[in-house]
Amino acid sequence: MAFTLAELTPDNLQAAVSLKLKPGQEKYVAPVVHSIAEAYVTPTAWPRVVLEQNQVVGFIMGSFDPDHEIKAFRAGIWRLNVAGEAQGRGVGQFAIDELAKEARSRGITHITVLWIPGEDGPEGFYQKCGFIPTGEVLFGQTVGALQL
Questions:
Q1: Which of 42, 53, 136, 139 falls 20 to 30 Å from 11 in CA-CA distance?
Q2: What CA–CA distance (Å, rounded) separates 78 from 47?
Q3: What's the pLDDT score for residue 72?
Q4: What confidence tens digit (pLDDT) does each residue in 9-62 have?
Q5: What is the distance, to the nearest Å, from the Cα of residue 81 to the centroid of all Cα atoms in its chain?
Q6: Burial of 31 (C-beta count, 10 Å sphere; 0-12/13-18/19+)
Q7: Which of 138, 110, 113 is nearest to 126 (CA)?
Q8: In this predicted model, what pLDDT tens digit does every residue of 120-147 receive, in sequence order?
Q9: CB neighbour class for 10 (10 Å; exposed up to 12, middle 13-18, buried from 19)
Q10: What are phi and psi of 39, to 5 degrees?
């Protein structure tokens, strides 16, 4: 199935904030509504929805802030939420690829992501997507980097 990336709009807002993860995943990623509030007050935020036939199946929020005092926050993924029923079909990988494409268009050579360690957490997914732990831990989360 083909996916598209779209800006957050009044037309897709309700579907975005209604995304339901698989049970137990809520402890690893903030809800979309939290991300949208954060994006509203953070000029460098880059919130997008992933659509499949005009249905919201995912949400990604990145940030591009080359002057951020914390190196891991200069370019990368802040949130990635994929609807439980859409997981395992390439939605997350597509969203990461699109954010990476945006980063490259800005001259950025690598992106980062932070994840909460845990047996059923997102670490395996991010590593499968090419993120390599940097050895740094911020706010109790592992920092991973992906070279572009």
A1: 42
A2: 9
A3: 96
A4: 999 999 999 999 999 999 999 999 999 999 999 999 999 999 999 999 999 999
A5: 7
A6: middle
A7: 113
A8: 899 999 999 999 999 999 999 999 999 9
A9: exposed
A10: -65, -35
- Beta strand extents in 8-52 (DSSP E only): 45-52
**What are the tokens at 116?**
């909460």
Q: What is the pTM of this model?
A: 0.95
- Residue 45 · residue 77 · CB < 8 Å: no
Closest Cα to residue 49, out of 94, 87, 89?
94
Which strand ranges, in their side-by-side order, compose the sheet holding 132-138?
Answer: 4-7, 45-52, 55-64, 75-82, 110-115, 141-147, 132-138
